[in-house]
Amino acid sequence: MKTLAEVRALHDLPLLDLIHRAQTVHRAHFGDNKVQLCSLLSVKTGGCPEDCAYCPQAARYQTGVEAEPLMQTEEVVAAARKAREAGATRFCMGAAWREVKDGPQFDRVLEMVRGVKQLGLEACCTLGMLTPGQARRLKEAGCDAYNHNLDTSRDKYGDIVTTREYDDRLRTLRSVREAGITVCCGGIIGMGESVDDRCALLLELARQDPQPESVPINMLVRVKGTPLAELPPVNTIDMVRMIATARILMPRSMVRLSAGREQLSEEAQLLCLLAGANSVFFGEKLLTTGNPAYEQDMALFEAAGIAPLEPRP
Ligand code: SAM
Ligand code: DTB
Ligand code: SF4
């Protein structure tokens, strides 16, 4: 078990040593040039009652994101089919909810999950807080993974979100785990946190037993109208350090280079992959913000000899 000081010492290593260690750990567990392509769809956009300071979908911030009702199952399955044809092996459905409520809307999400599974894709959902019973129903529908981020350290959390607590997040994560769904849990850098906050987040993630199967590392997308819009951008080297440290602490997890790729040069993205990231979200849009063009991503991977991870048989 590591301490915060030990994580910090890793994080602060000379960059080339850190990358070398991360790449060594990566090769011991993955040993390939494969990147998993995940597709993201906002199945229910905007109008969220929570106050997450980074989020363009919180109803209280004027960000220009229009609230839309829950999509129809057929539209979602059609999008998943297109994503599969483009090379995705994982399809993630996001809803701007504080929590899941039992009823027709949740039933429809369960239908979406069944539809996505029929296509042979990994199905992931991110719907806010869940009860143990709701987690079990998702599992029965075939949901493989649930995304629920801790976002930052416990100490910093209250500066970013006040409408729920760190322990609420941990409780939902426990329900997910107990239902037998794999955990996707990570965070965001660039929200004004200290380096110790970043390391404390990584420590919290790495201490989970078992560790999250999937760890998305996001760089804040600074959206006009949100309280964090005017913060200075993250230095790309900080993103590389965060990913490398995550890789070393969680050797078997899929580490996902998530939001913020549009703000990273191609070389910086490759450094993130060298530091142990082995997955990206692809397609023109994340949930509501931009992402690099498909053709541009494919050209970059091809030039680097990186192949999309094939579907599991
Ligand atoms: N409402 C659900 C929840 O909060 O868990 C699911 C959707 S929420 C948009 C999923 C994750 O997206 C958040 O936990 C956060 O980590 C990430 N996210 C949201 N806005 C972001 C932004 N502007 N930049 C980077 N990541 C962001
Ligand atoms: C995660 O950690 N990043 C993705 C996924 N999980 C759901 C979402 C990023 C959202 C970026 C802001 C937006 O597009 O609205
Ligand atoms: Fe709502 Fe999720 Fe955005 Fe927070 S991050 S405002 S809970 S959609």
Can you walk through the features of this model?
This protein has 313 residues and is an alpha/beta fold. It has a single domain, classed as Aldolase class I (TIM Barrel). It is built from eleven helices and ten strands. Strands 1, 2, 3, 4, 5, 6, 7, 8, 9 and 10 form a ten-stranded parallel β-sheet that branches. Helix 5 crosses helix 7, helix 8 runs parallel beside helix 9 and helix 9 runs parallel beside helix 10. The longest helix is centred in the N-terminal third of the chain and has 15 residues. It starts with a helix and ends in a 5-residue tail after the last strand. The model has no long low-confidence stretch (mean pLDDT 95). S-adenosylmethionine (SAM) binds next to loops. Iron/sulfur cluster binds next to loops.
Number of helices: 11
Hetero compounds? S-adenosylmethionine, 6-(5-methyl-2-OXO-imidazolidin-4-yl)-hexanoic acid, iron/sulfur cluster
CATH homologous superfamily (4th level) name: Aldolase class I
Helix content: 40-55%
Give a count of the beta strands, DSSP E runs of length 2 or more: 10
Task: Tell me the CATH topology.
Answer: TIM Barrel
Number of domains: 1
Q: What is the CATH class designation?
A: Alpha Beta
Structural classification: alpha/beta
CATH architecture group name: Alpha-Beta Barrel
Strand content: 15-25%
Q: Give the SSE order as H and E letters.
A: HHEHEHEHEHHEEHEHEHEHE
